[in-house]
Amino acid sequence: MPPSHIKTREQLDPIFNPTSVAVVGATSTAGTVPYDIFANLMRDKFQGMIFPVSPGNRSIDGVKTYKYVKDIEDPVDLAILVFPNTVCSRALEQCGQKGIKGAIVISAGFKETGPEGIEREKQLKAIADQYGISFIGPNCLGVINTDPSVRLDASFARAMPDEGPIGFLSQSGALCTAVLDYARSKHIGFSKFVSFGNKADISEIDLLYYLKDDPKTQVILIYLEEISDGKALMQAARDIISETGKPILALKSGRTSQGAAAAASHTGSLAGSDNVCDAALKQAGIIRCKTIDEMFHIAMAMAYQPLPRGNRVAIVTNAGGPGVLTTDAAIEEGLELANFSEETTEKFKRALPKTANIHNPVDVIGDARADRYNAAVTAVLADDNVDGALVILTPQSMTDIEQIADEISALGHQSDKPVYASFMGEADVASGIDILLRRHIPHYTVPEAMCRSFARALKFRQECESPATPAAPYTDFSHAKAQAALGQASGDGRNLLRPEEISAVLTAYGLPLVRDRVAASADEAAKWASELGFPVVMKVMSDQITHKVDVGGVVLNIESAGEARSAYDRIMANAAKNCPNATVRGVLVQRMMKGGEEVILGIKRDPSFGAVVMFGLGGTFVEIFKDVSFRVAPIDPAEVHKMIRQIRAYPILNGARGRVCRDLAAVEDCIQRLTCLALDCPEIKELDLNPLFVFEEGKGCYVGDARIMI
Amino acid sequence: MPPSHIKTREQLDPIFNPTSVAVVGATSTAGTVPYDIFANLMRDKFQGMIFPVSPGNRSIDGVKTYKYVKDIEDPVDLAILVFPNTVCSRALEQCGQKGIKGAIVISAGFKETGPEGIEREKQLKAIADQYGISFIGPNCLGVINTDPSVRLDASFARAMPDEGPIGFLSQSGALCTAVLDYARSKHIGFSKFVSFGNKADISEIDLLYYLKDDPKTQVILIYLEEISDGKALMQAARDIISETGKPILALKSGRTSQGAAAAASHTGSLAGSDNVCDAALKQAGIIRCKTIDEMFHIAMAMAYQPLPRGNRVAIVTNAGGPGVLTTDAAIEEGLELANFSEETTEKFKRALPKTANIHNPVDVIGDARADRYNAAVTAVLADDNVDGALVILTPQSMTDIEQIADEISALGHQSDKPVYASFMGEADVASGIDILLRRHIPHYTVPEAMCRSFARALKFRQECESPATPAAPYTDFSHAKAQAALGQASGDGRNLLRPEEISAVLTAYGLPLVRDRVAASADEAAKWASELGFPVVMKVMSDQITHKVDVGGVVLNIESAGEARSAYDRIMANAAKNCPNATVRGVLVQRMMKGGEEVILGIKRDPSFGAVVMFGLGGTFVEIFKDVSFRVAPIDPAEVHKMIRQIRAYPILNGARGRVCRDLAAVEDCIQRLTCLALDCPEIKELDLNPLFVFEEGKGCYVGDARIMI
Q1: Do both B175 and B292 map to the same domain?
Q2: Which residue from B minimizes the CA distance to A354?
């Protein structure tokens, strides 16, 4: 179920499936946007009625124009606004008065241009709300619906794309023109194509839910420059994938801080951390791509061929060198070369010349013609040990390229296993590639892209098929106790919690604390130390002393009651000497944990995604290598499992090279508890458990030190 | 100077610049290799005489044939053998008798097919040597020389490439056909194009030296499936780069072990470690590429545009989104966005509309035509803060794509700074791209490839310009002493050296050892320990005990003479109990080093590259992360410097986060000494210094433990 504030199908249908369209602000001057929009609607054979509204023309290209929207006799579903930005609001108001419920505001000069534009955009939105209009834009290229019963090209693109299973959403209008051009020559078809611009009213989230229920859309592509509501995006992705199995591919620019700055000056939005964004998209099942090329490479594979069921590929080639390059690429993408069955090997022996290499990669030899390719590809597709075929061709003088393309295309559509191809070269192989693409066999110029696409498609299938693992609900939390401790600090106007408050909060959520007591005298210190068991560590307690070690406020490795007594005195003396103005509230005596591996857990708040949990191995690994993993709360248990195993230093926790296997189940439990705490107490801005000592399997983990900021 | 065994210019000229060519084994059957070779020579207008030798035809395509080579009346420079492999030797013999000095053996069925083929190939080589013939092949596509005064297309490629500055060498014939096709449509021209096949006589090393002195060749590309003589390859690369400044780009397949296995089954050669290969190629200044695409992307930039002088790029775009994507890509490749001078900013203000973004990336806005692009690109190229221009274009409805391509091409050739372009899309921008490529402006479909090419070209220039740092010669080595210790072990038939032998070898090369003595009694142990200074560590000495710790043969942290005495007794007792059959030669008493960071240095022998030095941070980093760097001996001091700084864990040695800066100069000295040892004593198969303790700057480093295998 989409969230309640999401635009309904009824609200968006006037935009995507109108029976009548008004082009408000049309002109007859070719080469201008107001003309191109009108001309595109006409050229691409919109199946409804088109009404140009133009104060200055009586007709455009033979079609009667109207001075005002209200002059149109028929009801109008969709208004496309191409007026200068200064008069858009008034025009939209007239659309409202006419009863039009959908609009596309093409005009630029709004939020993206500064304070004046922001004001104009607010006005536009207010009028839309007043009249119950839903609109796309402003500052966009427009909307295309290729459905033959609609054929709406409400854009100033150069040409309408083919019909196809891909829904495309873009925050950048200019990028759309490049994408349409690229896709057309690759015979990649679209269901809906939307440039959503400043999204003053209809957002990418609304559009995602619309595509979710659009039967013509099988794969969703989205280009984003900023993510304004990360949580909603994640929810939409999860709803789409779990309910419909449609994959979502995202290209998010602004990966680097400079890129983000360029995006900000371009879209006027602030960027969050790209690490968090990356983790969040993956967590929601979105396939993040680094380039437009990569996005379409993967989209082609997912839209037009079955998803692979496993990673065992068969490579069929007419050239050894490219076979080797493809093998390298496959292995680097985590694929395996299939071991052929005896039956397949026998088939090869019958069909291929003696000099052919009948092991994987199968080399059908440079003089191979279509019959040999056909025999080899047929054989590998029939082999139970093979999950997909990667067909390589180099243009030798006797290669019948088009015939081979034709037969491979046929085989690709007869089989329930994916077939991808790479015809290497350019002009000589162009006609062959065109045949493959027209017949929807994914084609790649280089084997690396082919293998990556296979691997991504496989991963998506595996993720879809892995059973959901709902978190077991915790029943031992005491929100009230945590709230009390947090309230105490905020009541005092402190933004850092005291040790006893931290203990209260963590204990309320069942996080494993090292046992401790507060001592007010040397004798008490000795008593508590003996009670807790040696060795202990002792730390000064004072709101004013933040760097305890630096002022001699911490003593480690205390092994006896006598040592505890003298440690107390030393700590108090150091505090008095080094921090004469600090109020010391006693000395914390804590059981000292030995032999645990130190990990770090943290919570921070991302402006777009909300509560984010961080995990890493302590010390060098976090400090120097930034070897940490992120997840956005709430976290599925399977994701908690993954986030621990995703850091590079994971083998250290997992018994590598004679090490002890650590109690990772206990760490997973801590992450779950911490996540609940973060969600229940939004006043916590930051929280670190550093270190969390992790003991060997079955022996748990303990919070060594913690910091909570509100 | 090339090594003495390298083929001379005189030996190779008959192949590349012949005045007369015999096609030995030509036939008149179109669509066969023996015909295609002859037909290609004719079609591509060879500037000398062509003599088909064909036992079965009187003429081919109107040209008179000869039954035997000896029947040709004129002298012949080059023979191209296209006979079946079984008769090639006899044909080559006849060529020798005729006095022909150059040959290309196209025919396959030699080394690559097994024992029989290996024998045939040996025979071929023997005959060539007997008659002083130099030949390329067998099992190759042939040779092309585009020089207008020669125009030799001695290949069965589909078409002759354009003339141009790129020399291309390939171990795979089939890959050549794809490369030629690819290059043709991108207007990439070649000087020489060689498929060298099994290299029974002329090797890639010979060819590299030939291209070094070829005035038509400015950039060298090589595709390799195995590297048979890594040292020679490195030497050739160094000679080429230092003497001529020609860049060398290499594509080496078999990166993964499965890829290497596929290559082996295809070329019949064994693969070394790809890590070593990768390090070696870089060390020699070779630019290693991962894909054919990448190789040509970089080659285009280096062949046709000036090398960048710095990393400050200006991005000029007509679309915000692609500008952001390009910014991301530039930053990720280590480039910077140039800060424009005030003058440039003023120029922008005059030439661009108000809505344009005049900061980098410069957005000339979607409706920009050629005049605006021209103004922006001219301005950035004139700015001293800019090292190169990256021009992005998306096809908007008013974009005059061809005009823009034309003007950018002109600007690119007027400036001494590089100009690269990315016209995004496909069909709409195709004619513009074609103009760019014809006029040799490097064009990239995606900004990532553009930025990577810029970065690689820059790095090459920087490496060429960085002054050579010859190693200061060491004078304190005693090769004789090392030899004596090694001789002792080999005399005893041991392949592992004893501690005292290891000490002798390392001391002979000035490697810093921790002070130690051998104790034969508990009293002696106490005496040596007191003399060395506490703490000490004691270790059992026995050829039979390899895992000393496991049998209780090591005691650490000995702080007094008494402790030393009892440690001696304990070690001897443990040895007697746990290894009753071992001969114990005493107990080693060693000063125990504290507070050093542990690193590892090692030597191993690569079958192709020879002595390889390895460096890494000790413990987890080497064991789990394989975080090590390699260099092939001898190593330039600048490379020693780099290899330490290249490991991921380098910040740990360099004072990151409050750590101590370690004495890396001392480590560099150790690496140099170890390298000399490896080169002087080839009998050392493996050597590890593990750990080498590195103290803070100026305080040196000490070998904690070492292992030498002969």
Answers
A1: yes
A2: B113
